[in-house]
Each structure stands twice: as C-alpha cells, then as structure tokens.
Design a protein that fits this description.
The protein is α/β, with parallel strands linked by helices. It has a single domain (2-201), classed as Collagenase (Catalytic Domain) (3-Layer(aba) Sandwich), CATH 3.40.390.10. Helices cover 21% and strands 23% of the residues. It has four helices and eight strands. It has helices spanning 20-32, 65-77, 129-138, 187-194; strands at residues 2-10, 35-44, 83-87, 100-107, 110-117, 141-143, 146-148, 200-201. Strands 1, 2, 3, 4, 5 and 8 form a six-stranded mixed β-sheet that branches. The chain binds zinc ion (ZN). Residues 132, 136, 160 line the site of zinc ion.
C-alpha cells in the first residue's frame, strides 16, 4: 500500500454539500492509483472566512497574512500530515478563472504540500481539480538542489501537460470528455509521483 497522509481543513462558507469532500478524495484515489490519500485529520477553522477573489495565487502566501496564518495553523494542528487541503469560501482567486492552487513548502529535510480549493471546484465539471492539485504536489521533486514540479512530459519545463485530456493540463479536463479515469495520467507522470518522498509504503502482507 502506497499512501500519503492528508489533513483536510474546512473554513466557513466552503461548500461541503453533496459529499463534495468525499467525492474529491474518491476520485483522486481512483485517478492516482496505486497511491492513496489517507485522511489523517479533518479540522474546521471558524476564524478564517475568505471572500470571493480575496486570495491571490501569484502573490506569495507569506505576503498574504490570512492565508499564511491558515496554512501554519493547519500544519501545527496536524504536524504528522504531508499534504493539507483547505476548502475556502468564494468562487475564484483574484486571478480570473483560478479555482485551486498547490504549493510546496520546505519542511526539515523534505517538504509539505498545501492546496487551496474554492467553491467553484465543487461543481461537477471541475471535479478533477483536487486530483490535479494533488498532482502538483506529488510531482514535486528535487532537481539540481531546487524543488521543481515541472510536468515530466512537458517539453519546456512547464508544470502543465500539453495534452488537453491529461489531468495536468492547465485547463483541467471535465468528466464529460473523459471515459476512463486511468487514461488521465501518463505512465511517466505516475512513475514520477511514485518516487515522491512524501509517500509511505506499507507491505500488504
Ligand atoms: Zn495546475
């Protein structure tokens, strides 16, 4: 069994109806098989209400005190987790059409992953958004002393895949265009993700 420990953080006004969070993780597990996402902790943080278009994904999070504080809070409440998924209020980030983002922060000799998802990511056409953002974290690796999350198939070092039907395309594919979830990733992507130092491997025996 290959897994990563995840902490889910729910902030006020984040959409949770329709088993959204469960759906996000069931799909992500299906897509990233054999990697599974072990829900280590679920926390509700009432002090962090985000408005629509409040968060920027371009401005570094440490320069956005509320976001920075949220991420630090999550890390302190579940220090054993490797990835933190924060569901926030509002539909978009400040940047047009952006509904999710992923960010890796150095921590001791490795790093931790942080994901923010808005309410637009709850809609059915955007249901692969969590899996996509998890991809940015799982594809993060060390190269020449730096962290990179360049897509392993991208010819120019982009973090996004050139194929519009690939999970890691800049515009995340919608379920309408995808018949088989196992076709969303290339063998190269999965192989790279399986080398992530964030993963734990446990024998099934
Ligand atoms: Zn992306």
């Amino acid at each position: 069994m290959t897994y990563v420990k995840v902490c889910v953080c729910i902030t006020p006004e984040a959409e949770t109806r329709g088993n959204r969070i469960q759906r996000d993780f069931v799909l992500s597990k299906e897509i990233w098989r054999p990697i599974s996402f072990q829900l280590n902790k679920v926390i509700q943080l009432s002090a962090y209400t985000f408005r629509d278009r409040e968060i920027s994904y371009i401005t570094p999070f440490r320069e956005q005190p509320k976001v920075h504080s949220l991420l630090q809070k999550c890390a302190s409440l579940s220090p054993e987790s490797e990835i933190y998924v924060c569901y926030v209020g509002g539909d978009y980030f400040q940047e047009p059409h952006v509904i999710g983002c992923a960010y890796s922060q150095r921590c001791k000799d490795t790093w931790k992953g942080f994901i923010l998802l808005t309410n637009s990511a709850a809609s059915r056409p955007n249901m692969y958004t969590l899996a996509h953002e998890l991809g940015h974290i799982l594809l993060t690796r060390r190269k020449d002393g730096f962290l990179t999350n360049a897509d392993p198939d991208s010819p120019h070092g982009s973090v996004h895949h050139p194929d519009p039907f690939n999970l890691m395309h800049a515009v995340v594919p919608t379920p309408k265009h995808i018949r088989q979830l196992d076709r969303l990733l290339s063998a190269n992507q999965l192989e790279t993700a399986l080398q992530s130092p964030l993963l734990h491997k446990k024998s099934n025996l």
